[in-house]
Amino acid sequence: MKIAIVAPPWTTLPSEDHTGIEPTIFNLAEEYVKANQKVVLFAPHGSVSSAETICYPEIPSEFDIKADTIRFFLKDIFASYAYMKACSEGADIIHDFTLGGDYNVSIPVIHTVYGPPTEQTVKICLKACRYANNHLVAVSNRQRGEFSEISQELHFVDTIPKCVNTETIKWGADKEDYLLYFGSPEQKKDIELARRVAVKSKHRLVAVIHGSREQDYGSIKPRLQKDAVTTDIRLTEDLPRESRHNLYRKASAAIHISRWKEPFSMEILESLACGTPVIALRRSAAPEVIEEGKTGFLVETEKEILQAIEKLDSINPEDCRKAAEEKFSSKVISQKYLKLYRSFPQP
Fold first, then answer.
1. I need a surface site. Which of 175, 286, 307, 321 has the fewest CB within 10 A?
2. Is the whole model's pTM more than 0.85, yes or no?
């Protein structure tokens, strides 16, 4: 089977310091090559992989890729090129992660939808569904349900989560006495909650804040560095992969308390892969990933977070790692996708 993978045009692959969809795209391509599949990967300028890699032209610096209109325009241009090239080179299936391109093609197209059901995303998905060869895949059942609630015309053929390459992630059972929190400067209520539970449970707090501006740090520091808690604040756009995994590996627990309805959290997967339990709010995809009392705890309130912290010693780090390997490793997820690919009639 010849598989064409279409990546978004923003982040060069491999992207070890990024926790978006890009690691999943790269890991799938690598696994397919290992499985002796023919793979062509369409990816941003400068990308490198074991698959045949066709890079998009470099995006001129004057383009504001944070502007939605620019992003949708560029995504359509690059995806349309990838579709045309894939068909001309005899691909049997296109696996698209952009939701862009020309949907009227003669071979099956799988669209992995990894974002929330915004008005624009729903509109694009509805357009894709009008073409017989286009098929939607969700990254969580919660996300799939939210899309379906908006429109019954959106038909997802499967739910397949993101993945981590557990073969390249070290795990550890020896933990230090700190809680690990990842957040952004905008999540002020979540940051304050992380500080409060650290204070009350008498743990050190390591807070990794995704931001790069000095004003970000200035707005966050007073919220964290008070009371009796010792807080280590890391302000960064993308924490290097090894540094990130080292923090996960040594933490007593990762606390995932974002109120944003994230379709699927890579932070939870990376924590489990490092052998570290996760305490998460019972929302988004967390209940589909965390096994209550075995790989972490699902909570609703501050009191429940504190109760979960008290029970952390009952969790075996090896169980966390095993869950990542058996359910969310790139090897396992790639086989799920290959099974889906083969379910469609080949041209």
1. 307
2. yes
